[in-house]
Amino acid sequence: MKLLVFLLMLLPGFASAGAIRLKDLVNFDGVRGNDLVGYGLVVGLNGTGDGLRNSPFTEEIMSNILERLGVNVNGEEFRPKNVAAVLVTASLPPFARVGGQIDVTVSAIGDSKSLLGGTLIMTPLNAADGQIYAVAQGTVLAGGAVAEGEAASVVQGVPTSGVIPSGARVEREIDFDLSTLTQMRLALREPDFTTASRIEIAINSEFNRAVAIMRDSGTVELNIEATQSISTAHALGRIENILVEPETKARVVVDQRSGTIVMGQEVRISRVAVSQGNLTLTVEESPIAVQPNPFARGETVVVPRTFAGIEEEEEGTGLAEIPEATTLSEVVAGLNALGVSPRDMIDILKTIKAAGALHAEFVVR
């Protein structure tokens, strides 16, 4: 019997995974990272930098940096190949303090062939408000390699992008004071009324009083003052490890490229009959050349000859009945009874869904 359905039982949101920690189910309102971006220059490349004629912005930023360092380059024309203009990105974690260090990613924006061995010059990193929150500098660790000769070249990985571990130092803190909050909203990553209700009950049971209330399917509001905790941080530290069993949706996800089918435990199929046949269409071209008789007038011509046929496999399953299934194992057994390939199974599931017999969300990727 062919492999028809690949079941991944441990993916969150597809099968009941038992009790999950609260901090893995929700996001705490305000406790979030912030994206940073900067425009800088990588130097010290081994002839793999930008072609300044094709990337004039590289020459401009290089001139600005040299002038800030007291080097007058007005009217000078330089064409070094060991520099490259780059965009520097990073994520400022919540509660990052001045002096802390964060990782940065460096990506070439010109026609540089590789950033391997380069050094990023001091680059300010701005947030969406335009303020500078960190400054990046350091040696770029590129993950690819380039080798080339006069007639051929080979590239492995992405040498035009790299990282600098702990390459940026925090210079400004996010203006967010957690201790002043009297209310905290818990945002569910997978909104669901049942899960939100269970979170409310679990938190109130932990404190033996009504301190949490469900506002909607994606929000549970926590009253910090009612918890009688020393601080907001103490209250969140007490509830984040509470175990809650989330409710999951019935869902079928298929990947048409790989033929993978993933089913959740809550998937149900009503009683249905399925017929699936395989047709093979064959078209063959066998042209032949026809020549005139010896010493006869005429010319050689090519006469087309085509064979076309349709063949249907006789060893098909015919009309197969899938009984009403109440468990995932019964659903799998019913689908396996069809004896078809995974890609054919995707089409069968689509058809069953269209017939109204598949009671689950159907997601195609």
From TrEMBL:
GO terms for cellular component: bacterial-type flagellum basal body, distal rod, P ring; outer membrane-bounded periplasmic space. It comes from Ruegeria denitrificans. It comes from the Bacteria. It is found in: Bacterial flagellum basal body. Belongs to the FlgI family. Pfam families: FlgI. GO terms for biological process: bacterial-type flagellum-dependent cell motility. PANTHER family: FLAGELLAR P-RING PERIPLASMIC PROTEIN FLGI (PTHR30381), FLAGELLAR P-RING PROTEIN (PTHR30381:SF0). Assembles around the rod to form the L-ring and probably protects the motor/basal body from shearing forces during rotation. This is Flagellar P-ring protein. GO terms for molecular function: structural molecule activity. Its main location: other. Coiled coil: none annotated. Residues 1-17 form the signal peptide. Keywords: Bacterial flagellum, Periplasm, Signal. The basal body constitutes a major portion of the flagellar organelle and consists of four rings (L,P,S, and M) mounted on a central rod.
